[in-house]
Design brief:
Elements lengths: L15 E6 L14 E8 L2 E5 L2 E5 L3 E5 L5 E6 L4 E7 L12 E4 L2 H9 L11 H17 L7 E3 L7 H9 L7 H8 L3 H12 L3 H19 L4 H7 L5 H12 L3 H14 L4
Antiparallel strand pairs: 1-7, 2-5, 2-7, 3-4, 3-6, 4-9, 5-8
Helix pairs in contact: 3-4, 4-5, 7-8
């Protein structure tokens, strides 16, 4: 966990544990916990690798990671405010066995913020237990439709140079013939193997890369929506907005409104 603390999560006896950091530092090592965990990004953005998939958590998004699932943090923005809640969960509810990434609704956001007062409390507290039991009991209802903000990591070594090229040149036009040459595969074979390994076509994978990168840029507050659209490779704001909405299930303007609302309230300062 945090390199600045020596809290051993799996040795804690209480059913819940809250951990808030104003400037989170992670050790970037694969690990797992006996408890499930809810990871909420208050500001900044966070990448998490879970079961060979890279998940992105933009501002005001959260991930539910089931118990004993191996995961690690890949990278994050220069400064990130992160809340993690560990919980013993209801084994009869299938929701808690699945990985979920989702936009946090206002009610849940306020509940998470309220729970900050119990951050790093090392002993069982009756008020904390009652409150967090209610939060986790309602969590499946808050997550009505999980976002697919993840990219699978292919195991096939032939795709290594292809992946490197895509991640470096995501904002340029894909030329399938050039990628085939990198992998020493025909265009048809490359498309087939790539889809099998990642679950996405090359064009869909590039779309995800572009949208994920755009979320980073929008979260930084340095670029407008139109500047971001052109920066990640779209030829028009309209094309970017359509692509954004198909992935995020909301408009770029909605995403920016949430960030601006946080700034007004002093959440992201």
């Amino acid at each position: 966990m945090n390199a600045n603390d020596n809290i051993r999560i799996d040795e804690l006896k209480q059913p819940y544990f809250v951990w808030f950091e104003d400037n989170w530092v992670h050790d970037n090592v694969l690990h797992h916990h006996k408890k499930g965990q809810l990871v909420y990004v208050e500001s900044g953005f966070q990448y998490i690798t879970i079961e060979e998939r890279i998940y992105l958590l933009p501002q005001n998004h959260a991930a539910w990671i089931p118990s004993n699932i191996i995961h690690k943090t890949n990278s994050h923005s220069e400064k990130i405010k992160l809340m993690i809640m560990f919980a013993d969960t209801d084994q009869k509810n299938a929701f808690y066995d699945e990985i979920n990434v989702f936009s946090v609704p206002p009610v849940l956001r306020e509940m998470i913020k309220y729970a900050e007062k119990w951050s790093k409390l090392m002993k069982k507290d009756a008020g904390e237990t009652i409150f967090l039991k209610a939060l986790f009991n309602e969590l499946p209802h808050f997550v009505e439709q999980s976002l697919k903000l993840h990219l699978c990591l292919p195991k096939d070594k032939r795709l290594e140079k292809v992946m490197e090229h895509l991640h470096h040149y995501y904002n340029t036009e894909i030329k399938i013939e050039e990628l085939g040459e990198l992998a020493l595969l025909s265009s048809r074979s490359l498309e087939r193997i790539f889809k099998k390994e990642t679950g996405l076509t090359l064009s869909k994978y590039q779309q995800m890369l572009r949208i994920i990168k755009s979320l980073e840029l929008l979260s930084s507050g340095n670029l407008t929506i139109s500047e971001t659209a052109y920066e990640v490779g779209y030829k028009s704001v309209q094309a970017y907005s359509r692509s954004f909405q198909s992935v995020m299930q909301s408009k770029p303007t909605d995403f920016m409104k949430n960030i601006n609302l946080g700034l007004e309230k002093g959440i992201y300062s």
